[in-house]
Design brief:
The protein contains 19 helices and five strands. It is α/β, with parallel strands linked by helices. It has three domains: 131 residues, 3-Layer(aba) Sandwich (Rossmann fold), CATH 3.40.50.620; 98 residues, Alpha Horseshoe (Serine Threonine Protein Phosphatase 5, Tetratricopeptide repeat); 154 residues, DNA Cyclobutane Dipyrimidine Photolyase, subunit A, domain 3 (Orthogonal Bundle), CATH 1.10.579.10. β4, α5 and β5 form a beta-alpha-beta unit. It comes from Flavobacterium soyangense. One of its GO terms (biological process) is response to stress. Keywords: Chromophore, FAD, Flavoprotein.
């Protein structure tokens, strides 16, 4: 029996049908297209069974599948090790081409290299496309071709290059939907994948407050953030549409999107940052790494309201306001002298918007050990941050209901912790 001749489009971090570059080109193929998603066991096996991000991915795939079913097609969802899944698909179908969007994280690069080698061994063409960023890899570099390690010149070059393209091309896939393979694949439940529903949910993004973003972004009680970050992380929103829109709405908001690409470029160019300080001179810092102190930080019981509210928000919702993230990260690294890697790992476990490049980049920024980082002698005063950005205590009281009932004393006095941090950094910086 002849196997059906097909083309595959492999969804990964681009969970949408609209303005999806790789899908746009796949649908131009001579053979019908099977849309595919693989729940990768090499990733899933390390996650709790109620991980909210897996639930969000499953919900996003369900929405894609519902749209495909309206045109007589469906999404093929598999679970397993990616190489095993692809070997099985190659046996089942006459695969002519495979299309997918690029990913720039070390694990993904290694995984994709292995799959491409498998496809080539079976004489199957594969094509990858830039989709999760405006500029990738080595598209924004200094005059000598080296990557930028300071944000502002990177941003200026980014904006200069964007203006030559603006608006960035968007890709309308809707007129090509007739080339999807007509079949009704069985869509697995979350339980069949080995997971269960979480009480934590990804919030739909909201762009209504972007116009005033520069005025409201630092005040957590206002709840004026867009909640875009998980959607960017998993590609349920198009970065091209978003940037084209944001460039006319608010430059500070656009700058935040550029920060994301800056950290992606740093991770791609300097993969050591996943496990090591960008600034090797800081490798000599003698962290205290007190486990009891770390537990109090994790549980939001440090005695510093802004720190504790942020950690409780994170633990209960998977979100944390960006201003508060800076405060809690600085507190862990500077006040408690706990290695940024401990905090980075905890955020990776809890954040709905966890993205390796941004998580590592921002933690090293807070610790002072990264590229373009806050200087080591900059130590946020959590009390001043509280009074400046939550003057009426609205955010604090939301997450610390016992705040007015005799809230606990700070676990470490600020002036003492600041002096200790500066002295420890000074002694640890390698000459």
């Amino acid at each position: 029996m002849n196997k059906p001749e097909v083309v595959f489009f492999w969804f990964r971090r681009d969970l949408r049908l609209e303005d999806n570059v790789g899908l746009f080109h796949a649908l131009d193929s001579k053979c019908p297209v099977i849309p595919l998603f693989i729940f990768d066991e090499d990733i899933l096996d390390s996650l709790p069974k109620n991980d909210a991000r897996v639930g969000f991915i499953h919900d996003s795939l369900l929405k894609i599948n519902a749209k495909l079913k309206k045109i007589g097609s469906s999404l093929l969802v598999k679970k397993g090790k990616t190489k095993d899944v692809w070997e099985s698909l190659i046996q089942e179908f006459e695969v002519k081409e495979v299309f997918f969007s690029k990913d720039y994280e070390p694990y993904a690069i290694k995984r994709d290299l292995g799959i491409c080698e498998l496809l080539e061994a079976n004489k199957i063409a594969h094509l990858s496309f830039k989709d999760q960023v405006i500029f990738e890899e080595k598209e924004i570099t200094k005059a000598d071709g080296l990557p930028y390690t300071i944000y502002t010149p990177y941003k200026n070059k980014w904006l200069e290059k964007y203006q030559l393209l603006a608006p960035v091309q968007e890709y309308d896939t809707s007129e090509k939907f007739s080339n999807f393979y007509k079949i009704n694949f069985i869509f697995p439940t979350l339980e069949q994948i080995g997971f269960m529903e979480s009480f934590i949910k990804v919030i739909p993004y909201n762009l209504k407050n972007v116009t005033n973003y520069h005025e409201t972004r630092d005040f957590p009680a206002l709840d004026c953030t867009t909640h875009l970050s998980p959607h960017l992380r998993f590609g349920t929103v198009s970065i091209r549409k978003l940037v084209n829109w944001a460039s006319h709405k608010n430059q500070v908001f656009l700058s935040e999107l550029i920060w994301r690409e800056f950290f992606m470029q740093i991770l791609f160019s300097f993969p050591k940052v996943v496990t090591n300080n960008f600034k090797s001179a800081y490798d000599g810092i003698q962290w205290r790494n007190n486990e009891e102190d770390f537990k109090r930080w994790c549980s939001g019981t440090t005695g510093y309201p802004m720190v504790d509210a942020g950690m409780r928000e994170l633990n209960e919702t998977g979100y944390m306001h960006n201003r508060v993230r800076m405060v809690v990260a600085s507190f862990l690294c500077k006040h408690l002298l706990i290695n940024w890697q401990w905090g980075e790992a905890y955020f990776a476990e809890k954040l709905l918007d966890f993205e390796l490049s941004s998580n590592v980049g921002n933690w090293q920024w807070a610790a002072g050990t990264g590229c373009d980082a806050a200087p080591y002698f900059r130590v946020f005063n959590p009390e001043i941050q509280f009074k400046k950005f939550d003057e009426k205590g609205i955010y604090i009281r939301k997450w610390i209901p016992e705040f007015d009932l005799g809230y606990g004393e700070p676990m470490v006095e600020h002036a003492f912790a600041r002096d200790r941090a500066i002295a420890t950094y000074k002694a640890g910086i390698l000459k």
